[in-house]
Amino acid sequence: MQLRGISIWGRKAQEKYGIPAQTIATWAQKGFIKQIGNDKNKVLLDEQYVAFCAEIYQAHRGQGKWLFNADGTPYIPRSERVQLAG
Questions:
Q1: Do 75 and 66 contact (CB within 8 A), yes or no?
Q2: How far apart are CA 32 and CA 2, in angstroms?
Q3: Which residue has the higher pLDDT, 19 or 6?
Q4: Mind listing the pLDDT tens digit for each residue in 7-63?
Q5: SS3 37
Q6: Which helix (H) or strand (E) holds 35?
Q7: Ramachandran region of residue 53, left (φ > 0), alpha (ψ -120 to 50) or beta?
Q8: How confident is the model at residue 65 (pLDDT cuts 50, 70, 90)?
Q9: Gyration radius (Cα) of the chain, Å
């Protein structure tokens, strides 16, 4: 399913992907999720970015875990980097 350019807002994304709306809002503020517009008081997000972040979140979930580098790429813990290099 093509999600690029499809708009979704925070609460709807929370329901669809099972991620707290505040977490999604934080990702959008940091630029990890592209904002594509507004509908009254709702910020519309590009669902492709939401789905990508949700996939990373589900794979590495846990409170206080680092999920993304500052540039938005998935964070790879040191233990996994050593295994990959190994």
A1: yes
A2: 19
A3: 19
A4: 999 899 999 999 999 999 999 999 999 999 888 888 899 999 999 999 888 887 666
A5: strand
A6: strand 35-39
A7: alpha
A8: low
A9: 14
Query: What are 34's two structure tokens?
Result: 């592209």
What pLDDT sits at residue 84? 56
Structure tokens at 36: 């594509």
- Calpha distance 14→79 (Å, rounded): 30
End-to-end CA distance of the chain, in Å?
36
Spatial distance between the Cα atoms of 67 and 6, rounded to a whole number of angstroms = 24
**How far is 76 from 43, CA to CA, in rounded Å?**
30
Structure-token match 């790879």, residue found: 76
Task: Write down the domain spans for the chain.
Answer: 7-85
- Give me the amino acid identity at 54: A
Q: What's the confidence (pLDDT) of residue 33?
A: 93
